[in-house]
């Protein structure tokens, strides 16, 4: 918690800013003056990056009390984001808003609070975000159920969230611009789960239901405009577009999910090229397709065909360069190569070299306190695997959490069947091991070389790799 005097100062500063912008609205309103500041406990670095449409607008440095403050002489109303590596969140500014943030980096999202003029709508947006995180954490088993059970579960959640939206809207009386963002948040997160259901269901159960869904199952697609300018840079939109493209292609594919990787991903590029008119979003969606393709197909001939088309369709040279660098990093993780070293610590804060631990067949998996359900289920899965395959070594690598939070979580949950390590630099992990999500698993051979760096222990066929 923040010290008492620090919290009081935070509230007083927020009140002062609100008072400043409440007076003389007519005089400063035309310039769209806005204020943004805050206080960060346990900061990971000494600055906050302020962005619009993923482009950096400004950088605010923390003072000796870990605070920052900035006045915008002219700030166009709309959706922005702020980043304190490795975390980020959205903030919406209306005309003359004065918004302060308060958070603890040890639990970024759950401690984030907005205060000042414009705080209510932003706190509601955080409320929606946290509800969606909780829903995802509670849906781990729901994806294994049949369509009726799944749809009933998320439809009920959607209705409850819509009721909350209507209640907050009538009380807060926010702008039409913010209302569009709030509604999109609810609709797109709901649609995303509908899109991934048939894919995840088959992935977890081995049972394909892609062609057995009711005709009305995808009716929500008709409500989503993929070319609304103010939604094109919003992550729920990008998530929806990526999953929707994936689902369309895999529904048309008659084989298993992994079949025809090259053909499927070329189709995704072609569909995206047809559906999306905005160049930036088209580039971003195609980049997501390219990155996911790289993780699924390691054939150099196929890669050449894919990137020949990708290069013609994507106009952003920086994005192309990043994708090609990812391709180079993935080459280093091919079968029989040695896993690159990354900075890892044990529970005693001692640095560990991964190569020194790989003297037997090993399974490496990842977890974070922020994805609690996955953390619990992955460790339970390892408990089951350890009982079946006692000669296999398991290494659990924590990402994002502080040393203190990580060690507390290990003790609280009694994680004992794995060697528990913590990655101190997620960017290094992303670059060297191409870890962009927590669900990856890496299999290492007895001689310490890579067996397969791109699998998941929750794949229905995962154990075939262990025999």
UniProtKB/TrEMBL annotation:
Key words, A-Z: Signal
Highest taxon listed in the record's lineage: Bacteria
Domain Thioredoxin per the UniProt entry, residue ranges: 333-467
Record-linked PROSITE patterns: PROKAR_LIPOPROTEIN, THIOREDOXIN_2
Pfam family, one: Thioredoxin_8
InterPro entries for the chain: Thioredoxin-like_fold, Thioredoxin-like_sf, Thioredoxin_domain
UniProt signal peptide: 1-24
Name the record gives this protein: Thioredoxin domain-containing protein
Organism of provenance: Flavobacterium bernardetii
Species classification: Bacteria, Pseudomonadati, Bacteroidota, Flavobacteriia, Flavobacteriales
